[in-house]
Amino acid sequence: MMKPLQIALDGPAGAGKSTIAKTLAKKLGYVYIDTGAIYRAVTYRALNEHVGLEDGPALAAMIAEMDLRLVPSESGQRVFDGATEVTDLIRSSEVTNNVSFVARQPEVRDALMDLQRDLAKEGGIVMDGRDIGTHVLPGADLKVFMTATVEERARRRHDENVSKGLPSDLEQLQREIALRDKRDSEREVAPLRQADDAHYLDTTKLSIDGVVEAIERLMKQVVKR
């Protein structure tokens, strides 16, 4: 029997990390940890409470008062801040366009680091984000850096928005994703980059099942070491 692993999926916005992480975790019977949702929840609260998005100390103080919880359910992972469910609220365009500012504050990353590592310590988890393999779980058993072209990532996000009945502009999404890539890769703290020991996986032309199968093959290689 394969030992429970820590699997880290990193990559730029729209690379399909969350979809793959959820699908893979369900197939393996693992726990899915959506770190992006954690940062989104912090951003959502900061916007509501008018806390400066680049004021690291103020954001850290705010986080200390939050009770962030990720709750698995049949319909997917639910996100709570105390008794308030924010699962859908944190997916607004306003949060999406501002989360990079919050995520690049060192005080924020430090405040959330222990939470993320504690969730992963027993293994049997799939965690996705921008810096999981390089910063959050540098000792993860398997690291995969997922990417796709900007055009493909924008198309996926556009299709998702349309399927949910949300307004969506494909060209605007391309611009926003390209800008998000730039912000994430150029930030001083834990920038978006591929870990030296991560496997590169271009998902542009792969189906969800195809990506999951590719990662499962990598898992078998890890166990054989």
UniProtKB/TrEMBL annotation:
InterPro entries per UniProt: Cytidylate_kin, Cytidylate_kinase_dom, P-loop_NTPase
Subcellular location: Cytoplasm
First-listed, main subcellular location of the protein, grouped into a coarse class: cytoplasm
Keyword Nucleotide-binding tagged: yes
Membrane-crossing segments per the record: none
EC number: 2.7.4.25
HAMAP family xrefs: Cytidyl_kinase_type1
Identification of the protein by name: Cytidylate kinase
Keywords: ATP-binding, Cytoplasm, Kinase, Nucleotide-binding, Transferase
Positions with a binding annotation for ATP: G11, P12, A13, G14, A15, G16, K17, S18, T19
Top-level EC class as recorded in UniProt: transferase
Reaction equation(s) it catalyzes: CMP + ATP = CDP + ADP; dCMP + ATP = dCDP + ADP
Cytidylate kinase domain location: 7-220
GO molecular function annotations of the record: kinase activity
Family: Belongs to the cytidylate kinase family. Type 1 subfamily.
Pfam families: Cytidylate_kin (PF02224)
